[in-house]
Design brief:
This protein has about 850 residues and is α+β, with helices and mostly antiparallel strands. The protein has five domains: about 25-125 and about 505-570, Rossmann fold (3-Layer(aba) Sandwich), CATH 3.40.50.620; about 140-200 and about 420-490, no CATH class; about 225-415, Valyl/Leucyl/Isoleucyl-tRNA synthetase, editing domain (Isoleucyl-tRNA Synthetase, domain 2, Alpha-Beta Complex), CATH 3.90.740; about 575-620, no CATH class; about 780-840, Ubiquitin-like (UB roll), CATH 3.10.20. It is about 35% helix and about 20% strand. Strands 10, 11, 12, 13, 14, 15 and 18 form a seven-stranded mixed sheet that branches. Strands 26, 27, 28, 29, 30 and 31 form a six-stranded mixed sheet that branches. The structure holds one RNA strand of 76 nucleotides.
Length: about 850
Amino acid sequence: MPYTPSAIEPKWQEFWERNKTFRTEDGGPRPKYYVLDMFPYPSGAGLHVGHPEGYTATDILARWKRMQGFNVLHPMGWDAFGLPAERAAVRDGIHPAIITKRNVDNFRRQIKRLGFSYDWDREVDTSSPDYYRWTQWIFLRLHEKGLAYQASIPVNWCPALGTVLANEEVKDGRYVETGDPVEKRMMKQWMLRITAYAERLVSDLDLVDWPEPVKKMQREWVGKSHGAEITFAIAGHANRTFTVFSTRPDTLMGSTFCVLAPEHPLVREITTPACKAAVADYVEVAGRKSDRDRTSADAKEYSGAFTGAYAVHPLSGENIPIWIADYVLAGYGTGAVMAVPGHDERDFAFATKFGLEVIRVVKALDGSEPKLPYSEDGIATNSPGFDGMTTEQAASAVIAALVAKNAGKGMVTYRLRDWLFSRQRYWGEPFPMIELEDGTMVPLPDDTLPVELPALDDFKPTSDGRPPLARAEAWCKTTDPRTGRPAQRETNTMPQWAGSCWYYLRYIDPKNTTAPWDRAKEKYWLPVDLYIGGTEHAVLHLLYARFWHKVLFDLGLVSTPEPFQKLFNQGMILAYSYRDASGKYFHPKDVEEKDGKSFVKGTGAALEKQVEKMSKSKLNVVSPDEVVDEYGADSMRLYEMFMGPLDAVKPWQMNGVEGIYRFLQRTWRLVVTDEDTLHPGITDGAPSPELTKATHRAIAKVTSDLSNMQFNTAISAMMILVNTLTESQVRPRWCLDQLTLLIAPFAPHLAEELWARLGHPTTLAYEAWPKFDPAALIDATVEIPVSINGKMKDVIVVPRGADQSTIEAAARSNEKIAKLIEGMTIKKVIVIPGKMVNLVV
RNA sequence: GCCUGAGUAGCCCAAUGGCAGAGGCAGGGGACUUAAAAUCCCUCAAGUAUGGGUUCGACUCCCAUCUCAGGCACCA
């Protein structure tokens, strides 16, 4: 029988399912290994080939670790709450739960076809009441700790979506997912006090084995900065002060004016009558500007208005003017800055525009006076009492002087803001909170959970702008279970991030009905040993999940300070797309390529070929289904790993799959003939030295590549072994067994089938991983390149372990080399035993 | 603008500072076949983005530049 994935793959998938081959026990003598995928949002479009990239990598490692004797936890589930299902529900009039179930079923089907060794008994679904009951439970713990609160704040309101968005979801004034514009609105919202964990979210990054760029992005997101808080009195307003934050307190003596954000609460009060009109105008204009306009990079045009008021410089006692300008952000720090135009680009640009005084208070370290604005560190100057000090010394001295005058102190601030945690949506976790008649918001007791979503058939916000849940009037109207008094349910829901903040914990104990997870099981399984997913979650998901985990840690509910010990980001898979001169895209099946150029089939019109992100509109999406249909799951898996390093961005090439398919066929034919018998060359005898060595070499290479997650080169090593065995008419069973075990994590269906045909009665999922003998890899002789002036000229063969003089003699007596060096003086000979010889002439 | 990462045959990609090639695709040739497909065998090809530097020796280390990808961008 020729290699027929469509026959053997379903067979083994059924076998694994029927025998619960991959069911995981919680505990036992084997060491544990928890390998986790970032679970998918089950979209209506189904899987594309990017999803299984990470899943294949984790599956290979999971299978490999099992063969190495680890107790492996490898689960899968669904991040099932979310906006797309709700929008589809509004559009099609179908309940989001039904849409979600349909999508989940499709995702599960697609994933199961790829033969991943998940323990499906642990599948979780964040939109199931059994799951979100515990999401609500964790929210109550956050609330108890004072980490969840309501506040009326300016929020990012997205009119197109009819909901607010977290700061992280907005970029350049638009929703990052859809590009819909976002505007500021004051609203009462649930907030989570993630800022209380800012310091630990930064410092604990030292505890984990994550890619440096991701750590950096998280550090920058938290944005820790050291400096001083400085209080300014206001001339003529005896009881009024304002506070600024500065990272450069050493430049305080160079502060020639102050700037408040237009929204600063003091603006109205301190503005003098003469300036009132101009200031009011400016506040109005600034308020109307969108975030996008206010921060757009090209709009380097500074604007502002003078309030007429003066601040008292805390050290010099001089009066300096107070301006307002929208380059000072109301939401960051104190919403006010001391302007040091000599040493800050923005202040400099502003001072230039409005003719304000600029003075130098920092010289370069070499004493020179670089052009202003000069924002590097240096030596203080023009700063009575601090002259001659370095930036660092001056900063501490200024802080000390401020402390003495009770006008400031050293301070650390963070860019991180509290997390806006409510959405005006239907398809999310309801808050387990009720509002009493007196307006107080109180938590529901744990034993009333879950607060289930009410049945609705219209998921739009109400006509008066309240969230969809407000439509469920009977549901909203409730009583306080403690007092029996009437109450209203909270109608906001949690954002999609909520469910994904703790799913890795639920996998540990997914069926527990009395607790979110069992403590002993948690202690056994955590932390996650390896977490693989895309870079798109480098900040948001990972920061939120770490925050929740730390809260749970402080509550004694989890035993590790960090949830994910090692993180790895897979690179994105791109695809070729074809576009004609007018910009119209063509599907690859309508394209033919000739001499490296692309043409439309039929018409012959010339096309541009480029590599782009897969997208429907570019007609370049590849679905795993089509690949599995044509080549099988094993080819799909192997090709995804063979394309290149896991973390590289790389283009999908269908004929690359073809090459992999051919490799698997060759592997198959080593063992099975087209007549469906065992290959006649298979023997039980000892393999030849050559085949022994080739096999040991493959074992060594695949093993070390797997430990470094270098799947592409591991596959290459297996190809070499297969090619070597193909050349041989004698096929020692030992070699074939070893090869089958090596390939098992990568192409498990093929491996199981060959394993069975080679006469093994049980699954190879728990067979011991092959061991190699380092001695078997050593050759009796080694080839050593000989170069002259660093250019390789010939190769000599010497016994392994030959000493320098032997090698040098061999090199000099080599016919070709001897001829080349004839008549030349050898200035120097470099011999690295076992490596090379270099003659310098 | 700033910070990362990456540029190696036509393409995807390998190479502890020591023979530029492991593997795959595509191309060429051959065997098998009535023929084709499939299969098997053989084979072609770049000197590593560019310019400097360190070294006996550089794809690898250092500096500058270019291109691409990703992240950040009034955060005081």
